[in-house]
Every structure is written in C-alpha cells, then in structure tokens.
Write a structure and sequence with these properties.
Elements lengths: L4 H28 L13 H37 L2 H7 L1
Helix pairs in contact: 1-2
Length: about 90
C-alpha cells in the first residue's frame, strides 16, 4: 500500500501554513514591537487588523494552492509510472 501525494498534501499545507504564520508573526513583532493584531483587540485600528487578516489569508491560500498543485502533479506523474487503476482506465 502506497500513500498518494494528494493524501499528504492537506497535512503538508497545514504544517507549512502554521510555520509561515509563526514566521510572519515574528517578523511583525520585530518590526513593530507589538504582537500581531487580533480581531478582538480594541487598541489597534480596524485597518491594521484587516490588513493583517488579509495578508495572512492570502499567504495561507497561496501555500495551500501551491502544495495541492505540486501534489496533484506528482500524483499524476506517479500514476503514469506505476500504472494505477485510474491511469489504466485512461489508457483503455
């Protein structure tokens, strides 16, 4: 039994996204001297909260898309080499 790349992709995306968010938070803290804003933080302007939320969402979405695309490409290449059932049906 082999594990398909598409099966691992969501877990890889979660891990990489977590690491990216930690890195972004560290950079934000080092640049501003304050932790990143949260939705319920009344001392920070709504603009700053929205910019942070949009930025982290864009980075997270980009990571997920890239990892899923790479995994799909890898899985398709692997199917063609190993002759999986899907690849055999396509050839028929």
């Amino acid at each position: 039994m082999s594990i398909n790349a598409r099966t691992i992709a969501p877990f890889a995306a979660m891990g990489v996204t977590w690491a990216a968010r930690k890195g972004m938070a560290a950079v934000y803290t080092s640049r501003t001297g304050h932790p990143p804003p949260t939705a319920d933080d009344r001392e920070v302007s709504i603009t700053r909260v929205l910019v942070w939320a949009i930025t982290t969402a864009m980075v997270s979405a980009t990571i997920t898309v890239v990892i899923n695309r790479v995994a799909a490409e890898y899985a398709d290449d692997d199917d063609a080499v190993t002759g999986s059932a899907d690849a055999q049906l396509e050839q028929a």
